[in-house]
Amino acid sequence: MQAISTELLEKLKSLPEVERDQLIRAGIYEAALGRMQQLEREIEECKGRISSFETKYGMTFQEFESGLLQKDDALQVHEDYNDWFYWKQVLEEKNNFLPSFSYLIWHDAVGIA
After folding, report:
1. 41-94 pLDDT, tens per residue?
2. What is the count of structural domains for the chain?
3. Cys bridge to 108: 29, 84, 97, 102, which one at CB 3.0-4.6 A?
């Protein structure tokens, strides 16, 4: 693997700077676009999971946490709380990543160096 990496770097270095820059920009653009689309699908999955808990309990997470969770000691309620909390955290994390990918795509699209 090391030989391939070294060979690849040498080939990149041998390209004219303009060609190398365009190749790198295109690669970053395609990778960022692909990852952003994947993140958007993952965000939709998170929203769906959260929505199923909201439908099941007829309330938001905040209402559940401050109301039903405090009153009901059933194991399933606490398991649902843990799962609901997990999906909310994952959603927040993935939403925080999106601006970085949007920036990479926009940055490349307008050709800012």
Report:
1. 999 999 999 999 999 999 999 999 888 877 877 888 999 999 999 999 999 999
2. 1
3. 29
